[in-house]
Amino acid sequence: MIRVLLAEDQGMVRGALAALLGMEPDIEVVGVAADGEGAWRELQRLRPDVLVTDIEMPGLTGLELAQRVQRHGLPTRVLIVTTFGRAGFLRRALEAGVRGYLLKDAPAERLAEAIRQVHGGGRAVDPELALGAWAEPDPLNDRERQALRLAGEGLSSAEIATRMGLSQGTVRNYLSEAIGKLGVGNRIEAYRLARQKGWL
Q1: What are residue 100's DSSP bridge partners?
Q2: How confident is the model at residue 135 (pLDDT cuts 50, 70, 90)?
Q3: Any bridge partners for residue 27, and if so which?
Q4: Measured distance CA(18)–CA(30) in Å, rounded
Q5: Above 80 in pLDDT, residue 84?
Q6: pLDDT exceeds cutoff 80 at 80
Q7: Do residues 157 and 168 touch, judged by C-beta distance below 8 A?
Q8: What is the pLDDT of residue 197?
Q9: How far apart are CA 123 and CA 14, in angstroms?
Q10: pLDDT (average), residues 98-105
């Protein structure tokens, strides 16, 4: 049996995915989580074969979860199921060791196939998305990305500095670097552009 953990913040989608996978003879959903931190706790407790996760979730994103799995050397393979078909997201996912990347509008049977492929050591990524992922490189580093994401949530430089454990001057430097790299006028424009490209 392939043991699967599902991480999805929308209850109806989470329930539908669990029911869908429950019909497969060789797949068992051993746990579900409604946010990133909950998924991380369940990952450590259950040690599933495959984590099926959305990208956008409260707490930790699916990409941050994948990075933690990679950093901690967990044997779990990660498959992202998302509405975001942006090349920037896929590129960051692949860099974080993600083995599969499916869009939510893919046929339902594709999910079970992808889980089997990923579990078997293969990859399950839409070929057109994969080609686009390398067309435009992400110019931001992790700190710039984190500062920009918090700025986009409406936090001031002082609040961002507290959240990131940095000085306000360092935060301002990260934000102006990001603004400069993206060629825009301010942090809000930088946030919007980075979101649109899939870099946040």
Answers
A1: 79, 124
A2: low
A3: 2
A4: 10
A5: no
A6: yes
A7: yes
A8: 80
A9: 23
A10: 90
CA 98/CA 162 separation, integer angstroms: 31
* CATH code linked to domain 2-133: 3.40.50.2300
Q: Which residues of 100-120 are buried (b: 16+ CB within 10 A; e: fewer)?
A: bbbeeeeeeeebbebbbbbbe
Q: What is the mean pLDDT of residues 101-122?
A: 91
- Tell me the sheet residues that pair with 3: 28
Q: What angle do CA 37, 42, 46 make, to 5 degrees?
A: 160
How would DSSP label each residue in 47-92? --SEEEE-S--SSS-HHHHHHHHHHTT---EEEEEES---HHHHHH
Query: Average pLDDT of the chain?
Result: 90
The answer, yes or no, to whether residue 40 has pLDDT greater than 80, is yes
pLDDT at 56 over 70: yes
Give the phi and the psi of residue 32 in degrees, each rounded to 5.
-135, 155
- In single-letter form, the type of residue at position 80 comes to I
| Tokens of residue 151, six digits | 């700025």
Q: Where in the chain are the domains?
A: 2-133, 142-197
Which parts of the chain fold into alpha helices (H)?
A: 11-22, 36-46, 62-71, 87-95, 108-119, 127-133, 142-152, 157-164, 168-182, 187-197
Looking at the domain that runs over 142-197, which CATH code has it been given? 1.10.10.10
Residues in the chain: 200
